[in-house]
Amino acid sequence: MSVFISGATGFIAQHIVGQLLEQDYKVIASARNETKANELSKNFNNSNLTVVVTGDISKLDAFDSAFKQYGSEIKYVIHAASPVLFEVESTEKDILIPAVNGTKGILESIKKYAANTVERIVMTSSVAALSTYPESLDPKAVANEDSWNTYTWESAQISGGNAYFGSKKFAERYLWDFLEENKDNLKIKATTVMPVFVFGPQMFDSSVKPKLNLSCEVINSLIHTPIDGEISPMLGKFIHVKDVAKAHVLAMQRDDLIGKRLIVSEDNFNSQDILNYLNEDFPVLKGKIPVGNPDQSAEGKPSKDITYDNSRSRELLGFKFRSLKEAIDDTAAQVLKHEGRI
Fold first, then answer.
1. CB 180: neighbour CB atoms within 10 A?
2. Which one of 104, 168, 242, 260 is the catalytic residue?
3. Disulfide check for 67: which of 71, 143, 149, 242 has CB 3.0–4.6 Å away?
4. Beta-carbon neighbour count of residue 45 at 10 Å?
5. What are the residue boundaries of the structural domains of the chain, listed by start?
């Protein structure tokens, strides 16, 4: 039996595909267009990988052809496709509708063509589903696996930040509500994975571009900030991409993770933490990038933004997350090698 993964050309999703193939799963991966599909096939070059083209996932029938063709083979679904955007023309059209329709569409396609074969679905959600955007910046705020943000469809349209946070809640809620409503005729069990900022290397060196995906660009931009340049202030929590991918695979495999919402977050970070590790661990950058104020780091210190209490998730997953040093060094080393600097 196979694993179907949506949005398979995404940063996290490619690592999930990699770990599944390492464990000898047959994987059916979806890409938005032919170019991305061909690149994914070529990069993995694995006979256990089949890549299908879905087109725009905001169209409710986007997944129909894939499940019509392969539904009888699919036992597991990992739904990793969702927009990671903030600056858009229309928050509703570009963020909210694609996120919800992607979830709605894949679930309806499963119901139509794979109701008897799909047993598990794992969805990539986000800690954004747990709080409002302003709450995420509040050092007094605490969220855990039971939390949900309070956005309505209307209030989520006010800004890109609101829309992103709202989209994560609406898409995830749709999953849980759909499975509850269809529990008598679908045997599917679900788990959701909620990452924070995800650092680490791209799955393939060829994916390193001048501008990286949203999370990794935080590190990439500091690698390319001149010594007298302005340091972009950044504060948040991080997780290594390989740990996020592992959480998805375990959520698919283990019965004790059924019905769980898993927060994957290791520690606090800020721009200064990143500069400290870049300056300490990469001599090629010393004297080229800012030093900042080395004692103003956030790692291992009380949170200056929201606290995500993920003690339950850590205990359930049962493996140690990688450190901030490893996450930053893995990201930076790949970029610097690609640029021929190390």
1. 8
2. 168
3. 71
4. 7
5. 2-198+240-264, 201-238+267-308+323-332
Q: pLDDT tens-digit profile of 51-106?
A: 999 999 989 999 999 999 999 999 999 999 977 777 788 999 999 999 999 999 99
**Coil, strand, or helix at residue 72?**
helix
For 92-149, write each residue's pLDDT tens digit: 999 999 999 999 999 999 999 999 999 999 999 999 999 999 999 999 999 999 999 9
Tracing tokens 């986000």 back to the chain, one arrives at: 126
DSSP 8-state code for residue 130: T
Give the pairing type, strands 2-6 and 261-264: unpaired
Question: What stretches of the chain show up as alpha helix (H) in DSSP?
Answer: 11-22, 34-44, 64-70, 91, 97-113, 133-136, 160-181, 214-223, 241-253, 271-281, 311-317, 324-338
3-state secondary structure of 178: helix
3.40.50.720, 3.40.50.11500, 3.40.630.40, 3.40.710.10: CATH of 2-198+240-264: 3.40.50.720
Find how far residue 94's CA is from the centre of its chain: 18
Tell me the one-letter amino acid at 335: V
> Phi/psi at 9 (nearest 5 deg)?
-90, 0
For residue 217, the model assigns a pLDDT of 97
Active-site residue 168, yes or no?
yes
pLDDT at 82: 77
